[in-house]
Amino acid sequence: MFMVSLTTTPVLTVMLVGEVPVTDDPSAAVKPPFNYAEAMQKSLYFYEAQQSGRLSPNNRVTWRGDACLTDGQDLGRDLSGGWFDAGDHWTANLTMSWAALCLATSADFYPKVWKRVGQMDELLEELVHVNDYFVRCVRELGDAAEAVRDGDSMKGAFLNNCLLPRIPVYKKGVKIGGDPI
């Protein structure tokens, strides 16, 4: 018996358990029954579908367009960009930063794998897209926007090309419904 853990990102881990014949012949290697390259491509495609703001130049999601370009205007700042949180059409920096960290860590730990499956350029483009957003969120040291849009009002919302009404930006220290951000 053997157990292999292939991690496309630390968030997506696929476990494969089976038997491996012992042989010195490399041509007799067992081919896994799962297409890991396709899984890696689809995981990045998910992030491309979640892009807010101006889409990255090589975004492969043909039905998407630029979205939420006026986010942050109520603060006099450009807070467009980043990724929508779970398809609910709002951005939450805590979950977004964790996802970005996981993708960046996988690029750091497994660059040869990303290159071999032909997804390194797409991975780096996603990291540029999300980190450009994080840079825009930090106006001065210690002053960062935490969330754009109210997640409760956006649950299950889907509008053509994500043309959503303007909703205020929430900053660190503000209470929403009694809960601090």
From TrEMBL:
InterPro entries the UniProt entry points to: 6-hairpin_glycosidase_sf, 6hp_glycosidase-like_sf, Glyco_hydro_9
Record keyword Zinc present: no
Transmembrane segments: none
Domain Glycoside hydrolase family residue range list: 36-143
Signal peptide start-end: none
Keyword Hydrolase: yes
Entry's Gene Ontology BP terms: polysaccharide catabolic process
Keywords: Carbohydrate metabolism, Glycosidase, Hydrolase, Polysaccharide degradation
GO MF terms, alphabetically ordered: hydrolase activity, hydrolyzing O-glycosyl compounds
Protein name as it appears in the record: Glycoside hydrolase family 9
